[in-house]
Task: inverse folding
């Protein structure tokens, strides 16, 4: 049964990415108004009256606050944050990893989350309601060789979201993090041409879980770290 999100305002960061496209469409299909945030997003990317393109960065505290304040000024509230921004770099051991790569993983996978969370949480607390869902990675709990910076940044994201859940559980808010395995996106197919995508996680499955958590049916789930590993366990 489709989740009912009619009347809800959702902010999706990375809305036109490999996962973001599915999440944005799923939220729209459930009746939400969706603000799709990405540096180069365009209104024409989602042909739906409930979609609002919001070209913006959240790579700094100032940029994230500006985006959140602008959304609040236009729409008056924010019910759902689906934070999907992230990136991957790997292939080297910890001993071989350079400073720039290590810092880039934390900028993409942790700092961006911190900035947008700090920008939206006060508004949600003031409203007495809010649902936050972030995308982590299986590597946060099951790290492998050659991806130490990525795994560490995603593990830190898990701790951040669980802290948000604990700090705001009495404010009508929930915060949860999903840990997908390799997802079947165009980028992953391009980067891993010899892998079997039949065992990968379908983005539509992650999107369905996000809409469920954002609905009234998911209101009792808070501080959860949810594995979504696909059939190739």
Result:
């Amino acid at each position: 049964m489709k989740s009912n999100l009619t009347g809800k305002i959702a902010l999706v960061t990375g809305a036109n990415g490999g996962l973001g496209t599915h999440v944005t469409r799923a939220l729209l299909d459930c009746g939400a108004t969706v603000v799709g945030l990405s540096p180069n997003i365009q209104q024409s990317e989602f042909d739906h009256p409930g979609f609002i393109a919001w070209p913006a960065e959240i790579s700094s505290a100032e940029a994230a606050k500006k985006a959140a304040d602008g959304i609040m000024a236009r729409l008056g509230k924010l019910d759902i944050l689906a934070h999907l921004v992230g990136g991957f770099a790997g292939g080297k051991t910890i001993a071989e990893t350079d400073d720039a790569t290590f810092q880039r993983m934390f900028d993409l996978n942790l700092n961006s989350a911190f900035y947008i969370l700090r920008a939206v949480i006060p508004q949600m607390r003031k409203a007495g309601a809010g649902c936050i869902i972030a995308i982590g990675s299986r590597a946060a709990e099951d790290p492998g060789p050659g991806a130490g910076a990525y795994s560490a940044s995603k593990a830190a994201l898990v701790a951040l979201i669980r802290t948000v859940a604990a700090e705001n559980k009495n404010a009508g808010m929930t915060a949860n993090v999903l840990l997908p395995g390799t997802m079947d996106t165009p980028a992953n197919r391009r980067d891993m041409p010899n892998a079997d995508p039949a065992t990968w996680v379908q983005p539509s499955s992650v999107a369905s879980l996000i809409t469920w958590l954002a609905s009234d049916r998911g209101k009792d789930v808070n501080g959860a770290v949810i594995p979504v590993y696909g059939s190739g366990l």
The first strand starts at residue 9 and ends at 13.
